[in-house]
Amino acid sequence: MTYDNLLTHTEEGVCTITINRPSKLNALNRKTISELHKAFKEANEDAACKVIIVTGTGEKAFVAGADISEFADFSVSQGEQLAAEGQAKLFDFVAHLETPVIAAVNGFALGGGLELAMAAHFRVASDNAKMGLPETSLGVIPGYGGTQRLPQLVGKGRAFEMIMTAQMVDATQALQYGLVNHVVAQEELLDFTVALAKKIMKNSSVAIAAAIEAVNAGFEDGENGYEEEITQFGKCFGTADFQEGTQAFLEKRKANFPGQ
Ligand code: COA
User: Fold this and answer.
1) Angle of helix 156-165 relative to helix 146-154, nearest 10 degrees?
2) Which ranges of the chain does DSSP label H, i.e. alpha helix?
3) Which of 65, 73, 126, 246 has the fewest CB atoms in 10 Å of its CB?
4) How confident is the model at residue 177 (pLDDT cuts 50, 70, 90)?
5) How much distance in Å is there from the Cα of 25 to the middle of ligand 1?
6) Ligand 1 atom having least distance to the Cα of 142
7) Domain ranges of the chain
8) Does any ligand 1 atom lie closer than 6 A to the CB of residue 37?
9) Which residue's CA is the nearest one to ligand 1's atom 42?
10) Residue 247 has what pLDDT?
11) 6-201: CATH number
12) Are strands 130-132 and 169-170 parallel, antiparallel or unpaired?
């Protein structure tokens, strides 16, 4: 499928979704959110796609936030609807995909941009990246999961400081905070992220999907992560991947997972 505000490319099991609205620093307008939903859904359903990388066009921005021009005159109910729809369509949707998602943060990741990066399963940043949730400087709060995912990743005190001051952290500080897993030179960002994706692809995709469910369950209201882990652990025993993985180990050879 082709998109107005995205570029997509699949090669050797890695599907890269690039947000492509450089004149607006890749800000997430309604159309881009809708296209992202379709692109993530399509990649998740594509058997040839084992890992998804999300990044932004250009050297300046991953995503500079939700598109402020679209909601500046919204009412209370429209504001609530904006957050609810965005969370369902994109941010929660990404966090719960079966296919692993890595955010390659290539510059500014602000507001909805950082929220998108945080919805990914983990993050790699370029050394020029700057991250923040500046919403309180606009008189609003993060609405795409930021008040929940930032404290989960960096701890409550650091999250409060970032949200209350509306200040950005640079890549080094983000690394110290555990907000990103790695920081690399900008020109190495995609190659480095693809190399990580290839390490993931060697493992069982069904086991990875089960791990995503189990880890996420610990962060969901009303769910018990330990119970979900037991369920998912048990399910793995009924998969062809488990048969292959254990057989390959016993036969001292590399596993060739069927992905089932
Ligand atoms: N929504 C809508 N448009 C945005 C945007 C956003 N979140 N972020 C950047 N843009 C647009 C700018 O309006 C500008 O468009 P224009 O050329 O038509 O005027 C263009 O992108 C370039 O941005 P500009 O501000 O000129 O770049 P800069 O290098 O001076 O500053 C930032 C970069 C990221 C510091 C600045 O753009 C910014 O603060 N953006 C908003 C960040 C934010 O508050 N995000 C949270 C939203 S909830």
Assistant:
1) 130
2) 30-45, 68-71, 76-86, 92-95, 112-119, 146-154, 156-165, 171-177, 189-201, 205-217, 225-236, 240-250
3) 73
4) very high
5) 6
6) 48
7) 6-201, 205-250
8) no
9) 64
10) 96
11) 3.90.226.10
12) antiparallel
Give residue-wise pLDDT tens across range 83-134: 999 999 999 999 999 999 999 999 999 999 999 999 999 999 999 999 999 9
What is the reported pLDDT for 221? 86
Q: What is the pLDDT of residues 199-208, one digit of tens each?
A: 999 999 999 9
Catalytic residue ranges: 115, 135
Tell me, using a 6 A CB cutoff, whether residue 82 lines ligand 1.
no
Distance of CA 85 to the CA centre of its chain: 17
Give per-residue pLDDT as tens, 28-85: 999 999 999 999 999 999 999 999 999 999 999 999 999 999 999 999 999 999 999 9
HEC per residue, 161-223? HHHHHCCCEEHHHHHHHCCCCEEECHHHHHHHHHHHHHHHHCCCHHHHHHHHHHHHHCCCCCC
- The answer to whether the CB of 65 is under 6 A from ligand 1 is yes
Answer yes or no: are the C-beta atoms of 241 and 204 closer than 8 Å. Answer: yes
Ligand 1 contact, 133 CB (< 6 A): no
Residue with token string 């983000």: 174
- Ligand 1 mean position, distance from CA 199 (Å): 36
Overall pTM surpassing 0.70 (yes/no): yes
The CB density around residue 56, as the number of other CB atoms within 10 Å, is 28
Question: Under a CB-based contact definition with an 8 Å cutoff, are residues 151 and 177 in contact?
Answer: no
